[in-house]
Design brief:
Helix content: 55-70%
Mean pLDDT: 76
Largest sheet: 2 strands, antiparallel
Radius of gyration: 63 Å
Low-confidence stretches: 295-317, 351-366, 383-389, 407-425
Number of strands: 2
Distance between the termini: 140 Å
Strand order of the largest sheet: 1-2
Shape: elongated
Length: about 425
């Protein structure tokens, strides 16, 4: 089939072929832009699909890793990740192709501007012949009308003067008509020549445009084809991996990773009871009362230590239940004066400090009572020669001068029965 040529197909009575060919060239820019938009939309779809596949692969890694079926999820994850990579690779190729299409569109705009300048003379020839065609048509109509009027006057027997006047008008119309015919012939020759050249130029532009578009479409289809081949390879790999993942392999892997050992429990024989060992191990233990640090220790009637302490105090050092003779000289018996009052034993400062304050080791022993030392400083009398009587103000001043020595543990026992104080005036 012979290809139709532009220079044979765009003529016509109105000579609109040039306008059609020029706008067809401009439509090439629109086609280029639309192709770029189409490829960009396809790249967006592929990118979204790749992201979805990546998300799906991550979700497969979050599935349960327990059970015999757990290793199969690794096969799914690997295959899905490779599919995502294939589509991302297609996105990269399509983005490169979009850049090529955009560059071609920019070059196309420059080429069309240059072509417009080159075919400017053809446009003038087209406009000239179009205007001459209209003028020639009007001139022909005027010539025909004048000739008809002159012939009508002759037939009607009009005066010679009227006939001559009509003849003059007819002659002018004839000359004008012939002039437009000559001008049209000249314009027609120039128009045909330029229009043929321009039509061929437009055809060359369209052929190059279509060829470039086909090449870019071929790159587009080749990129998709390569991606499909990669996807096919990934699918074949997935099928092979699933075939290699047999029931025996899954059972073997679970046994190797989750196995608890191959040694079975040994036999147990009957052993007779050794009463001596059992009796010795069952000796009663002394129970110690529970105490909270920093608080008063309540008496525990069930506590062995508390009972022993009380029995010692009540018997002046003799154990509980002892009814024998007691050595009064060595016994813990307080001394009395002539009036029957207890005499305070003499205690030196070191003993007082030891009995008053706790050491760091004593703070840890909660069974011993805690002590504090109270020192009252007397008020100095105003007159050294005369001793003033005690008054309420002096008593208040004396009380205000009472100082409590700090305890090393920072906490005082509130059990009045077990604490005692040492005061000095």
């Amino acid at each position: 089939m012979t290809m139709a040529l532009f220079q044979d197909s765009f003529w016509g009575e109105k000579n609109n072929g040039f306008d059609v060919l020029y706008h067809n060239m401009k439509h090439g820019q629109i086609s280029t832009k639309e192709l770029s938009d189409f490829i960009r939309e396809r790249a967006t779809i592929e990118e979204a699909y790749a992201r979805s596949m990546t998300k799906l692969a991550k979700s497969a890694s979050n599935f349960s890793q327990l059970g015999t079926f757990a290793p199969v999820w690794d096969v799914f994850k690997t295959s899905t990740e490779k599919l995502a990579i294939c589509h991302l690779e297609l996105v990269r190729k399509l983005q490169e192709l979009i850049k090529e299409v955009q560059k071609y569109g920019e070059d196309q705009v420059k080429a069309h501007k240059k072509t417009k300048e080159e075919v400017a003379t053809t446009l003038e020839a087209v406009q000239n012949i179009q205007s001459l065609s209209q003028a020639l048509q009007k001139s022909k109509e005027n010539y025909n009308n004048k000739s008809v009027d002159q012939e009508r006057l002759r037939k009607e027997g009009a005066t010679q003067r009227e006939v001559d006047k009509a003849g003059v008008k007819t002659k002018k119309a004839t000359e004008s008509y012939k002039l437009y015919v000559e001008k049209y012939a000249t314009a027609k020759s120039e128009f045909e020549q330029k229009m043929s050249e321009t039509a061929q130029k437009f055809q060359d532009i369209e052929e190059a445009h279509i060829q470039n578009m086909k090449e870019m479409i071929h790159s587009y289809s080749r990129s998709i084809e390569e991606t499909h081949l990669q996807i096919g390879e990934v699918h074949n790999e997935f099928v092979n991996n699933m075939e290699n993942t047999t029931v025996e392999n899954l059972i073997q892997k679970l046994a190797e990773t989750k196995g608890t050992g191959k040694e079975r429990p040994g036999p147990i024989e009957f052993e007779e009871c050794n009463t001596a060992i059992v009796t010795e191990g069952a000796k009663p233990r002394k129970r110690k009362a529970f105490a909270i640090p920093g608080r008063r220790k309540d008496k525990d009637t069930d506590s062995t230590e508390s009972t022993e302490a009380e029995s010692v105090k009540t018997s002046n050092g003799a154990p509980s239940g002892y009814y024998g003779r007691i050595d009064l000289q060595n016994a813990n018996v307080p001394q009395v004066d002539e009036e029957g009052f207890c005499i305070k034993p003499e205690i030196n400062e070191n003993d007082a400090k030891d009995s008053t304050f706790y050491s760091s080791s004593d703070s840890d022993d909660e069974d011993e009572p805690r002590r504090f030392h109270v020192e009252i400083k007397p008020v100095q009398p105003n007159n050294g020669n005369h001793q003033a009587l005690s008054s309420i103000d002096e008593l208040k001043a004396t009380i205000s001068n009472i100082t409590l020595s700090p305890s090393t543990s920072g906490q005082l026992k509130r059990n009045s029965s077990s604490e005692y104080s040492s005061t000095s005036l």
